[in-house]
Specification:
Blueprint lengths: L18 H7 L3 H9 L15 H7 L5 H17 L1 E2 L1 H9 L5 E4 L3 H6 L5 E3 L2 H10 L6 E4 L6 H10 L5 E4 L2 H8 L11
């Protein structure tokens, strides 16, 4: 089984690295692999964190593992561009422009603490967004720490919502930097 002996950073990742190292450097790697190559999104196309990107590509009949790694890097940059800081969101809300806040946390989390004007994600809300919301108006996805929102953003973007953003750091960052009176919590 391949192992890496030197410290791994994004700059020195290669197709010879283990998938756990690729995912540590690029947290959206699995989403990218699924979106572009249908790898890693379900049980039938899953991969092991202990296999290399080269082995994964070989097993899936992809000849150019370097191109796959480059796609992962490009997607990482695209993901980073989707984030809006809590301060930027506060300014956007203060501007008076139409902004929709979609909270994708659990009902319990939402009931405990939420940003004024946000809507809890549900199946009816999702259908309403697709059918009636202006696809060019900002739709800001909110989660707890900013780690789960990119999947929801990708879903809505893929369905024609053109101005989807994610709250960087989630509601925890909002409470920390914009609304210090808002209670914060930890999920175990």
């Amino acid at each position: 089984m391949p192992t890496t002996t030197k410290a791994t950073t994004r700059d020195n990742l290669s197709p010879a690295n283990l998938m756990r190292e690729i995912q540590a450097g690029y947290p959206g790697a699995q989403r990218t692999l699924f979106r572009h190559y249908h790898i890693g999104g379900c049980k039938s196309c899953a991969f092991s964190p202990d296999e290399t990107l080269e082995d994964l590509c070989r097993r899936n009949s992809i000849e150019d593992a370097v191109s796959v790694l480059n796609q992962i890097r490009d997607s990482h940059e695209e993901d980073a561009a989707l984030f809006i800081t809590p301060e930027e969101l506060r300014n956007l809300l203060d501007s008076g422009d139409e902004v929709k806040l979609l909270d994708i946390r659990t009902r319990e989390e939402f009931d405990a603490v939420s940003i004024r004007g946000s809507i809890l994600m549900s199946q009816p809300v999702m259908q309403d967004i697709m059918a009636y919301w202006n696809p060019d108006s900002p739709l800001i996805i909110i989660d707890h720490t900013g780690e789960q929102c990119l999947d929801a953003a990708a879903y809505f973007s893929g369905h024609g919502i053109r101005n989807v953003r994610c709250l960087q750091g989630g509601i925890d960052a909002w409470a920390s930097s914009v609304d210090p009176d808002m209670p914060r919590y930890v999920i175990n």
